[in-house]
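Collaborator request, handled under Task 6.
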Amino acid sequence: MTHDDDSIRPYDERTDAREQAVMFLYEAEQRSISPVDLLAERTIASAELSTLLINGVEQSRADIDAQIVIHAKGWALDRMPALDRAILRLGIYELTSRADVPTAVVIDEAVELAKRFSTDDSGKFVNGVLAAVAKKVRPAGA
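Structure tokens returned to the collaborator:
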């Protein structure tokens, strides 16, 4: 999978913070430690927003994972790619807890992360799950 357009992607602090948060969530899961503990070990570029996102996902993880199970029809949580889980957790956290971020932004950013870092089908999968969650938690489409 090549990502030639990565080098021309304009810098956006919020996008960078989301990317950092996904990488922390992914690494923490791979190491079987809390993302909050991993965060304590390191410094990161977009620290304020990344920290907010990581802590928010960790605090709401049981509810977030329940949403993934409900909306990822045909997929067991432990059978989906770990990066998809991390991206979905972040996206669902933002949909449920960050009303200041428009629904389209949450979904678009998550889909782009999935396309850049996960499997060829991950963008569509993430889009479908987050769109289904958004219909439930943001029915007005905000």
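The cover message to the collaborator said: "The chain has one domain: 11-137. The chain is about 70% helix and 0% strand. Please let us know whether this matches your experimental observations."
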